[in-house]
Amino acid sequence: MKKKPALAEALTGQFEEHHGRLLGVLLGTVDHLTTQVQELDRLIADLMKQTTAPYDTGGPSDGDDTGGPSVRDGVTAQELAERLDAVPGIGPATAQIVLAEIGLDMSRFPTPEHLVSWAKLCPRTIQSGAKNTAGPAGKGNPWLKGALGEAANAAARTDTFLGARYRRIVKRRGHAKALVAVARSILVITWHLINDPDARYQELGTDWHQRHLNPARKTRDLVRQLQALGHHVTLAPTIVA
Known about the structure:
The strands form two sheets. Strands 1-2 form a two-stranded antiparallel sheet. Strands 3-4 form a two-stranded antiparallel ribbon. The chain starts with a helix and ends in a 13-residue tail after the last helix. It is built from nine helices and four strands, in the order H-H-E-E-H-H-H-E-E-H-H-H-H. Helix 4 (92-102) runs antiparallel to helix 6. It is elongated. The protein has helices at 3-11, 17-50, 77-85, 92-102, 112-118, 142-155, 161-173, 175-195, 208-228; strands spanning 52-60, 69-76, 124-128, 131-135. It is mainly alpha-helical.
């Protein structure tokens, strides 16, 4: 509001009738495009409410003499989008893009690793003779990778498990690889939320790596040091009385 008087003063004597006509045309174009966007949003919302994810119940399907697994419709795409919206970095629009690109049927991806590999978010191994080197992940689906990249970039700035993961990796691998690692984690979380009708996102906290990975790494490093000194190490859990 404070800028309006300054704008009016700047345009005084310089805003003529033809400027007003041009501005009216531009505002009409904005209104027309806004109406189209709102209509597309309505169609997308309706489609997401009608589309459901198929889930394997594990039993024989109705009318199936082969004894194969039955498939039932479960959670709607709208409900899945709301689940994904709980993941740091993912908003409603990003959730819609991710679901549109990977679909709702995770039977095509038996494990999260299959989905990550299909999305080209894991490094390739290039073999030349006896030498193996890590190569670029590949292009993959540009719309999916773009959405996950934006989500990873947003999650990296949060005080969450994904944000802590980014800050832990960026120190030794750099910004780009840290973002790819966070995007990969987001896609793994997405697979679980879609594949399991009862799954919900649970925040692990910024200290998860400190509580779980660091003690194991320290133990492994100490064992290696003792073995290097010629000791045979046997670990046993501490029994608390």
